[in-house]
């Protein structure tokens, strides 16, 4: 039981060291993440369409 209490005490101490992002940073990071996901979605969708079209031509 002492080990568990020590573990949570250490977790609490480490969490105080964390630098949490500000609201502006969070918005910027979230926007960048969503933009990258959308770009990759379009890219892989187009790649799939092209591959399927090529496959139909050769089969």
Helices and strands: which structural class?
A: mainly alpha
Mean pLDDT: 96
Shape: elongated
What is the straight-line distance between the termini?
67 Å
By DSSP, the count of extended strands is: 0
Task: Give the ordered list of helices and strands.
Answer: HH
Biggest pleated sheet: none
**Alpha plus pi helix count:** 2
| Helicity range | over 70%
Beta percentage is under 5%
Q: What is the CA-based Rg, rounded?
A: 23 Å
- Regions with little confidence, pLDDT below 50 for 5+ residues: none
SSE diagram, text form:
Elements: H1 2-17, H2 23-58
Structural summary, described in words:
The chain is mostly helical and 59 residues long. It has a domain at 23-59. 88% of the residues lie in helices and 0% in strands. It contains 2 helices and no strands. It has helices at 2-17, 23-58. The longest helix is centred in the last third of the chain and has 36 residues, at 23-58. The N and C termini lie far apart (67 Å). The relative contact order is 0.06.
């Amino acid at each position: 039981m002492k080990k568990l209490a020590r573990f949570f005490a250490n977790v609490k101490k480490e969490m105080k060291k964390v630098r949490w992002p500000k609201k502006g940073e969070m918005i910027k990071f979230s926007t960048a993440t969503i933009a990258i996901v959308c770009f990759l979605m379009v890219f892989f969708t187009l790649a799939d369409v092209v591959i399927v079209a090529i496959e139909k031509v050769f089969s």
